[in-house]
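Suppose you are handed a protein chain with no further information: no name, no annotation, nothing but its sequence. What can you learn? This example shows the usual starting point.
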Amino acid sequence: MATNEKLGSKKIEQTEEKENFVTRTLAFFNKYSNVIYGILLAIVIVALGYVLFNKFYLQKKNNEASALMTQPINWLMAGDTASLNLALEGNDEYSGFLDIASSYKITKTSNTAKYYAGLCYLKLGQKDDAMEYLKKFKKKEDVLWYACQATIGDLYDEQGDESKAISYYEKAIKSEDPFFTPITLFKLGQMYERKGDWKKALDSYQTIEDKFYAEYQKMGISQYAERAKAQVGK
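A reasonable first move is to predict its three-dimensional structure. Written in structure tokens, the prediction is:
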């Protein structure tokens, strides 16, 4: 009997707690309803504004910028010094990568223009400028971004900064690109060898074998893998 009374009392307490919670919630809502509705309205307005901004402004600007990219890309592909400077600076008729990057700052195309500007500077031998623009390239286009990390790694390697070179190579090899990823893995393996980290060097070579076997054979990686295995086994 006592047990039933305790259970009944507990159920009453729980019911009262629920009722009190509901009462407090309703009271809070009634008190701050204007504020709550204002916040919800603000969220809706911001979301709608973002959608409209993207659809009617940003997309239009990005399309404009994309149309301007054709000629400087042609100049970049030509590869001679005069063409590379035109690709960067443009002329009276066509914009160059630098102008596109600065005039269309919030667009995806502006981001891509920074990457191509970095490549132009690299081909011109202006490596400090190349590094500046390559590091400005944000991760919006995965394939290009990974290739960019590999190029930055090369620049740090040339400067003798092995730690930073390895850091950028490790970012680059997360791509599955069949062309530059095995090359970057090989460079990474070579850097690990220089540091005496034969286990990581072997891992790099084995990744090429496992994921890019055709390139593994073409690049003659087996001799490097065998050497690394011998060092690991010592």
